[in-house]
Amino acid sequence: MKVFNLYNDELEDSMKREGWNARAAKVGEHIGGELIGAGLYEAQPGNKIWPYHTHHANEEWLLVVRGQPTLRTPEGERQLHEGDVVCFPRGKAGAHQVWNRSDSPIRVLMLSTLVTPDIVEYLDTGKVSARSVAGESIMFGRPGPELDYWEGEE
User: Is residue 22 assigned to a domain?
Assistant: First the structure.
């Protein structure tokens, strides 16, 4: 059995961009998870963890491990507290973003089903990411005009 400690095990830099600096650990991979993914994220004051997005194939849960993150959803923004758990359903109703507007570091654990393929939609920018059953990128861009089913077929 493999163990990961949410308070003491090492995190690595996952993003280094102004306003988006975060450290993370792939907890699910570390403990050998196959059906449920888990990522631990830590952000310093003033930083966001990811862009506002939703998954169309996967449900995600957020557990606040440390601090008071601000959660953005389609319902608006609210401050969370240590021990809070939130579920993000698949589709647009589950859109979310975590931001550290406090004066102290925040740490959140994200749990996710590992359903593939998946489509991730970034609602602020209109970008869409599609990944195959093997996790390979199929597309990352903005949708263009809808095509006729038979266009280009001979």
Answer: yes
User: Distance between CA atoms of 128 and 69, rounded to whole angstroms?
Assistant: 26
Q: What is the CATH number of the domain that holds 79?
A: 2.60.120.10
Which amino acid makes up residue 89? P
pLDDT tens for each residue of 106-148: 999 999 999 999 999 999 999 999 999 999 999 999 999 999 9
The Cα angle at residue 100 between residues 76 and 39, in degrees rounded to 5: 95
- Cβ neighbours around 35 below 10 Å, total: 8
Domain assignment of residue 93, given as a range: 12-115
Q: Is cis: bond before 117, omega within 30 of 0?
A: yes
Say what the pTM is.
Answer: 0.92
pLDDT tens digits, residue range 24-72? 999 999 999 999 999 999 999 999 999 999 999 999 999 999 999 999 9
Q: Is residue 121 one of the residues assigned to a domain? A: no
CA torsion 70→72→76→82, rounded to 10°?
A: -40
Residue in the structure block whose two tokens are 């102004």? 18
Count of structural domains within the chain: 1
